[in-house]
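During the reporting period the student researcher (J.K.) took over the structure-prediction task from the postdoctoral fellow and processed the backlog of single-chain submissions. One of the processed entries is reproduced below for the supervisory committee.
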Amino acid sequence: MNLVHRWLCSSAKWKNVVETYILPWTLEDVNLGADLLEIGPGPGVSTDLLCTRVARLTCVEIDRSYANKLRRRVPDNVSILYEDATKMSIPDRSFDAVVCFTMLHHVRSAPLQDKLLKEVARVLRPGGIFVGTDSLYSRSFRLLHTFDTMVVVNPDSFPARLQAAGFDDVFVDVMKPYAFRFRARKP
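J.K. obtained the following structure tokens:
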């Protein structure tokens, strides 16, 4: 992420947005189970809110700096893995749920996003749920991502991509003009 984006995602204003809008909307009526995986926590704003909701939380973060900072401050029920979520070292069927919040657009290409979706399906237990959200394209969103990776996910084609990755019971809900949320189950 570029410096402005890093600053924004670490700000008190963003924490308020995550706590007040993003997590409640995305996790509405979702049972996360005991073992939760968070993909791409970045500075850990969502991690701080999730760790009190589950017995065990594992986070996969590709940015070494963010991973190291998180390791130094998370509670005992949280494990931080510094690795690429498109090729996780996690054993099959390890988690009850997987979440990701506004990070899919940071994956460098649609094929890599699809690889990530398949990895999520692999590490979920049967009946497990994958829940998340991502932003819709706008000029301000593009500006925020100047000199940054931004591969916007199309919510209209995302259900088919989730199904191709091995999910069923797919649900995608769009909140124009800002974001979409999704849910999908591993059979």
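The committee noted the following: Strands lie at 35-39, 56-61, 78-82, 95-101, 124-135, 168-175, 179-185.
J.K. will present the remaining backlog at the next meeting.
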